[in-house]
Known about the structure:
Layout: H1 5-22, H2 36-43, H3 65-73, H4 80-100, H5 105-115, H6 129-140, E1 150-153, H7 154-169, E2 175-179, E3 186-188, E4 192-196, E5 200-202, H8 203-225, H9 241-254, H10 260-277, H11 282-291, H12 296-306, H13 324-341, H14 347-351, H15 358-363, H16 365-369, H17 381-384, H18 386-399, H19 409-413
Parallel strand pairs: 2-4
Antiparallel strand pairs: 1-5, 3-4
Helix pairs in contact: 1-4, 3-4, 4-5, 6-10, 6-13, 7-8, 8-9, 9-13, 10-11, 10-12, 11-12, 13-18
Amino acid sequence: MAVTEARREALAERSKNVERATRKIRLLGHLRWPVEAETRFLDSADPHPEPPGIRLDPVVPVVPDEELKALQDALDRADPAHEFLARTLESARQSQALTTALGSHGFVKLGLEMYGRPDDPVAPGAPSALEAARLFIAATDTLNLDEPPTKLDATEAAEWLRRETLPYLDDPQLEIELDPGLASLATAGSTRIRLRADAHFSEIQLNQLLQHEALVHAATRRNGQEQDALGALAMGPPRTTEAQEGLATFAELITDCMDLQRLRRIALRVVALQMALDGADFVQLWTWFREQRQTPEESYHSTRRILRGGDASPGGGIFAKDGVYVSGLLRLHALLLASMRENDNDLPMRLFAGRLTFGDAVRLRPLFEDGTLTPPPRMPRWAAQRECLGAFLSFSALTTRFDLDALALRDFANAE
């Protein structure tokens, strides 16, 4: 049955109420470290590094929690659209609670509740993110992993991204900004992509940013904004992070722009997260990243990502977000295989309709079928070509049965 106009308008009003109530709640911006902390640490790093000594203060809530809870309680959880809004509000409440816990061990506990632990189960029959990360690292330990040559500084990279994203996002007003305080190389919203101002970029990295930041993160947010009945699909609260990063990392893999160094970096962060949970401090993590063949500067940025809440003490300041790149990649693969098995061919489309979780993509199916939600106008080619995506997934599922330790070139040399 097609959705009525009254239903569409009622949902749109509820969605706008949720958006208005939560739009000022920020998370990552409160976890920024002073730019000068890097110079101070690296100057002290030889021979005996001193920890940066970062202390982040709790943030005063911008929205009373009672107001958010009242909006949440007024929703009918039996309605899939209301359930989506209720989960969005809950995630916003968690995000705000996390910033108010900065500087305490409660920050770590709340972060683990939001993003999960590295050793949490991902899907039936699948390894945990920690197990997969260790496999990735072991598989690349003996390889010559020279970084691809960097050709462009951040200003030149920004110009390249402006030019390349225009045909996909169709927005000449898209802003590409340089930000000296980013913990990552780049972040993306619907109208802005930020690059770390002191970074240099290789051709491979630029293509990774195009697929990851522009064609997933920016595109899904823009698609969500154009959902008339449920504009909250554009919001992207922390509950959507695993699906967003899994989708974006998968995009790098399937478009042949994921290199071994990048895959290894993602895996190293998962293991480092577990090390931090086991008690490793900033200097121990930085030293371990150095032993894994990262430069002093890259090791600093990698460690900072893990301890973004501040490095007050062993076990403190740990930010669990970096575990979701691998868990999201594994969970997405399992979800897409399940959708093939059950002939749900539209699931990839639903994942691009906004900032959804994997669960949302399943639960919101009736709203796409009745016209409440509309197909996304922006989808990368790999996601739209179902048959090719199915072939990739089927073959990759088969190759996971290979025992890498049992493979050796001499066995092939001795074969006919």
